[in-house]
Write a structure and sequence with these properties.
By secondary structure, the protein is mostly beta strands. Helices cover 0% and strands 74% of the residues. It has a single domain, classed as ATP Synthase, domain 1 (Sandwich). It has a five-stranded mixed beta barrel. It is globular and about 25 Å long. The protein starts with a strand and ends with a strand. The model has no long low-confidence stretch (mean pLDDT 96).
């Protein structure tokens, strides 16, 4: 699935991923391939990304929103 993480200043990540773990305002959750469509608000925390090469990256955020639809995830986030 395709992931984009965008801040007001720049696009900090774009690529194919296996798993995204997000700090939702109602609790942490994961998105995997073929996840049901979702829109959620995000709180202060870390976004964990596992890419197709099994490398793990973390992105610190203050807040944001995420949308997942048709195996495309877009995260709009404020960074620290």
């Amino acid at each position: 699935m395709h992931l984009e993480i965008v801040t007001p200043d720049e696009k900090v990540f774009e690529g194919e991923v296996k798993l995204v773990q997000l700090p939702g305002t109602e609790g942490s959750f994961e998105i995997l391939n073929n996840h049901a469509p979702i829109i959620s608000t995000l709180k202060n925390g870390k976004i964990k990304v596992n890419d197709n090469a099994n490398a793990t990256q973390y992105f610190e955020i203050k807040s944001g929103v995420v949308e997942m639809q048709h195996n495309k995830i877009i995260v709009l986030a404020e960074t620290r």
